[in-house]
From TrEMBL:
Molecular function terms, GO-annotated: NAD binding; phosphoglycerate dehydrogenase activity
Stored CDD domains: ACT_3PGDH, PGDH_like_3
Pfam families: 2-Hacid_dh (PF00389), 2-Hacid_dh_C (PF02826)
Origin organism lineage: Bacteria, Bacillati, Bacillota, Tissierellia, Dethiosulfatibacter
Protein name listed in UniProt: D-3-phosphoglycerate dehydrogenase
Organism, scientific name: Dethiosulfatibacter aminovorans DSM 17477
Record keyword Electron transport present: no
Amino acid sequence: MFNITTFNKISNEGLKHFDKDSYSLTPDDISNADGVVLRSYKMHDTVLPDTLKAIARAGAGTNNVPVEKCSEKGIVVFNAPGANANGVKEMTLLALLASSRKVNDGIKWVNNLDGDVEKQVEKGKSQFAGPEIMGKTLGVVGLGAIGVLVANMGIKLGMKVIGYDPYISVQKAIGLSWDVKYSSSLDELFGQADYVSLHIPLVDKTKGFMDEENISKMKKGARLINMSRGGLVNDAAILKAIDEGRVSSFVTDFPTDDLINKNGVVCIPHLGASTPESEENCARMVVNQLIDYLENGNITNSVNFPNCSLERTEGTHRIVVLNKNVPNMIGSLTAVFSKYNANIIEMVNKSKGDYAYNIIDIAGTEVNEEKIEELKSIDGIIKVRLVD
Ligand SMILES: NC(=O)c1ccc[n+]([C@@H]2O[C@H](COP(=O)([O-])OP(=O)(O)OC[C@H]3O[C@@H](n4cnc5c(N)ncnc54)[C@H](O)[C@@H]3O)[C@@H](O)[C@H]2O)c1
Ligand SMILES: O=C(O)CC[C@@H](O)C(=O)O
């Protein structure tokens, strides 16, 4: 039986894949968990039990998960790349329009009118006029699953689009419309864009990405859209730029105490991926990845360990090993297997950054606690698990 802890509301389209005979689901209590499924719940202060094997983030961003700590403890962190990209793309369209047309302020105003509404609407509406987006330039920072969809959408809306992503993958580059101008200079993007839309992860390097300096490089009167993460934009710097009229508006999916009810700021309560389609796609994807890991040791879409899968071979025992990516690990592992006369039927070893992963199918010997402990005692080994 595997214990699964859920944080946040996870779509049943995902949870229903956990077979009731093999999985017990408990919301919020992680003390005995083999796996966690969560959305935006912040895990940085959560004590990670020794039972924990994997964390599945039903979404794209993993900044709410202590990924490095998980790697050190041999906990595989999964996410759902692209599974909510369309939902966020559509929300970016809304944000793009909301940054231009003052619908948010207009709606607040109209709902507070007191009598003779039709007359007052026609008299007062001019204060909410805003420019059309067709023909304007959209700058897309980050051309991953969401950024590519947003860039291509901009072209379809009749905008000029300039995209920046120094780490763009070949797969994403292929999906990018030929009409998108790819730039290797952020300054060029800031210099040309009437609308800047952020689609990058929040990691140490991107914290405060839109600081005073980068905001000052934006065209006068440009608009900023942040559907990615709050920590990417410095609140004080963007509020100052709006106050001074250098930036026309800021639409964010990540409200803070400082941003709400401020002129020129539209706050959306983190709704980018809140569609049934995105929630179901994400939950289905990560639950199946988690099941395949717990039951077969296969890894798909992990952010801290390499993708690694192996078909099961009948009559073998499967051992999975998580280790530091240092020399001679395979030699040390196979030395233990040969000592016990184990026949390695299949073996796959993959590495990602500082960590590596092995799936080893053996025959010819039983696997017991003593042998597992011997493997665990090898220097550099983080975790060993029998997956029978
Ligand atoms: N508002 C929401 O509900 C919501 C939903 C999904 C994702 N997100 C956020 O959007 C982000 C992007 O999601 P995605 O699915 O497109 O992820 P992704 O990993 O597919 O794409 C991110 C892209 O950013 C690029 N990048 C990284 N650092 C960069 C930098 N300094 N400059 C330019 N490009 C850089 C990467 O190369 C990658 O192509 C996520 O990390 C998450 O924080 C928000
Ligand atoms: O779970 C959510 O609602 C938001 C997910 C989103 O922020 C993501 O990074 O995928």
